[in-house]
Amino acid sequence: MRLRVIDFGTVPALRSQAVYHGLAETITATSDPILSLVSPADPYVCIGLHQDIDREVDRAYCAAHGLPIIRRQVGGGTVYLDHGQLFTHFIYPQAKAPQFAVNLYPRFIEPVVRTYRDLGIPATYRPVNDIQVNGRKIGGTGAASIGEATVMVGSFMFDFDIATMSRCLRVPSEKFRDKLHQTLADYITTMTRELATPPSRDDVVARFLTHCAEVLGVTPEPDGTTPAEEAAIAAAEARLADPDWSEVQSRKLVALGVKIAADTHLTEAAHKAPGGLIRVNLLEREGRVADLVLSGDFTCLPPDGIDRLAAGLTGVRLDRALLETAIGAFLGAAAVETPGITPADFATAILAAKAD
Hints:
By secondary structure, this protein is an alpha+beta fold.
């Protein structure tokens, strides 16, 4: 199978996210799969699909330092991005990609792991979707359904600005921020940290394509974008820059808040599951779910599945067994995947927000 390799080089921040969003929108069932490669010329903060900016990001710091905040259409957490990373985006017609996330992650992570090992870095895959070196993270990945495409995003970490990352995030205190900085320094590694002489971008790409061919059974072929793809990328840039898209989670919370009545309680809570942090805003009425917003740094396939799950729980009594049954039934019937997060995890998060 042919794998179109489109190397965009170094591009502005917004375009570095828009390229794979736009390419995915052009994919049809008969399309060749695509691997896009890109690095951002300018630093920015990238927030996960299901996250609320005001809970995750220090907006004032980002504004003062000219750091755009861009919401991607892929789950996961908030991250600071700059020219120290090379982004990789596998964009496959859904029928040509593994059907379930449990198969998707290890398959597309393996070429990255082999490339690091080639370079002398003993990388390993750590479920659900991380790559580690001797217990330190050297890269995460994310998956999404966009249009008719299955998308798997990742990166090669040449270097990472831990100091700026720790400043971008919203934290409860400066003492906590100091601890966050130290934790990131202890937990994250890069090629610059692991190797006496980091490889060139061209060397990494060449090795990576060799392993893509071996692992994925494809023939990588350099290619350029078509006029239709360029148009789709331009449309994606406009969409990602639209405040209505950036603030989508905040608008859900506003809508939730205005529904409060005398016999209704609006509460919030969070629960850390293996697949990510689940945040809950619960509108409770007479012991049942009146309305619900689920957010966090998890992955949900398809992306709208999390909102449909929240809506589907309206009216369910706030009882663990009933919630787990309802959540499990919905996920199965709707073919919604939340890797690393079980119905029990969702129920725990929701019940943590239950009013006393």
